[in-house]
C-alpha cells in the first residue's frame, strides 16, 4: 500500500512516517520545509519504500501515481507562526486542503486531516467533546489557524457528500516530543530551549491556564487507528490529564537542570496573557476510547524525560559537527 503524508518532514509527520515505514508501507512525503526540517526525514533516505517530494500543497501538485491513503498534516502549528503568516496559513488550510482532496478523489484514496483542538477556540465548557461547537474569534490573531482548520473540516464533509471522498478528521490536542524545532515557539520546546540556554522561562498569563500534553508517539498511534477505522466523524486525539502551564514550566526546568547537572532551576518570568490564548483546554476522549480503542499511554514525566534527552543529544551533535540544521533538500528521492 502507498501512503502519502503531507507535512511528513514536520514533527508529527516524522513520527507518523516512521510508524508507516516500520509497518511496511510505501510512503511518499510532500513538504515544502516551511516549518518542517530536512533533518526529520534524512534518516529515511536509505529506505527503498520512501520518497520525498519538495512541493507546496497550495500549488499544482506533482504526479505521484496511485496512493491508497493520505494523511494531510501540512500546516504550521505554532501560534508564533499564526501571527507571522496568517494569509499563507489560510491558503494552506483551504487551497492546500482542496488540492489534497482533489488528489484523494482522483486516486480513490481515504484522506485523514489533522484538525485541532483550536476548532473549540477559548472553550466555555470543559472537557470539550466533539459535539461542542466552540468559541472562536473569527478575526483575532489565531483566527487564521482556528478558522482555517474549521473550513478544512467543512471542506472534508463537502467533498464526502459531493464526491463520495472517504474522510477521517482528527482533532489533535497539544502534542510534544522529539523532532520539534528547538525554537518552534510552542510551550514545551520553548521551555526546554530556555532552560538549556540558561534563560528565564517565559510564561504568558499567571501560569494557571491549562493544557493536556500528549506524547508524539501516542498521537500518531491515534491518527493511524482513526485512518484504519470505520468512524468518519471528527474524533479528539489528546491526553486528558489537565495541568496548569506554570506547573509544566517548573517540571521542564527541573528535568533540564537535573540532566545538565545544574544545582538550581532557571527562573520563570510572567508576561501578559496573549490575545485569545485559551485559558483552559481538556479533551473528552471517550469517543476515541470507544471507537478506536485508543488512549494515550506515555505519562508526562516519561515523555518530558525522553524529549529533553533528545534535545540535549541534538545540542551535542550540533555543537560537535556544526552541521546545518534544517538545510535545503533536493527534490525527489532523498
Ligand atoms: O513560551 C511560551 C509558549 C507558550 N506558553 C503558553 O503555553 C500554553 C500552550 O501554548 P502552545 O503554544 O504550546 O500551544 P497552544 O495550546 O497555544 O496552541 C496549540 O494548540 C494545539 C494545536 O493544534 C496547535 O499546535 C497550537 O495551536 C499557552 O497558554 C501559551 O500562552 C507560554 O506560557 N510560554
TrEMBL record:
Cofactor(s) needed, names only, are: NAD(+)
UniProt-listed Pfam families? GDP_Man_Dehyd
Membrane topology term: Single-pass type II membrane protein
Catalyzed reactions: UDP-alpha-D-glucuronate + H(+) = UDP-alpha-D-xylose + CO2
TM regions (residue ranges): none
Query: What's an example GO BP annotation here?
Result: D-xylose metabolic process
This entry's Enzyme Commission designation comes to: 4.1.1.35
Cellular location(s): Golgi apparatus, Golgi stack membrane
**InterPro entries membership:** NAD(P)-bd_dom, NAD(P)-bd_dom_sf, UXS-like
The UniProt keyword set, sorted, is: Decarboxylase, Glycoprotein, Golgi apparatus, Lyase, Membrane, NAD, Signal-anchor, Transmembrane, Transmembrane helix
* Involved pathway(s): Nucleotide-sugar biosynthesis; UDP-alpha-D-xylose biosynthesis; UDP-alpha-D-xylose from UDP-alpha-D-glucuronate: step 1/1
Q: What sequence ranges are listed for the domain NAD(P)-binding?
A: 4-306
Example GO CC term: the record gives: Golgi cisterna membrane
Family statement drawn from the similarity comment of this UniProt entry = Belongs to the NAD(P)-dependent epimerase/dehydratase family. UDP-glucuronic acid decarboxylase subfamily.
Name under which the protein is recorded:
UDP-glucuronic acid decarboxylase 1
